[in-house]
Amino acid sequence: MKKKLIIILILILFIPIPFHLKDGGTVEYKALVYQISRVHKINTNAKSGYDTGIIIKILGIKVFDNVKESKKMNNNILNANYQNIDFNIEKKQVTLNSGYVMPLNGLGTYSLTGDTCYEAVASALASGVRLIDTAYMYGNEEEIGKAIRDSGIPREEIFVITKIYPTQYDKPEEAIELALKKLDIGYIDMMLLHHPGNLDIEAYKVMEKYVEKGDIHSLGLSNWYVEELKEFLPQVNIKPALVQNEIHPYYQENEIIPYIQNLDIVVQGWYPFGGRGHTSELLNDDEIVKIASNHNVSSAQVILRWNLQKGVVVIPGSSNPEHIKENTDIYDFQLTKEEMERINALDRGEKHDWY
Ligand SMILES: NC(=O)c1ccc[n+]([C@@H]2O[C@H](COP(=O)([O-])OP(=O)(O)OC[C@H]3O[C@@H](n4cnc5c(N)ncnc54)[C@H](OP(=O)(O)O)[C@@H]3O)[C@@H](O)[C@H]2O)c1
Question: Are residues 215 and 331 in the same domain?
Answer without folding.
Answer: yes
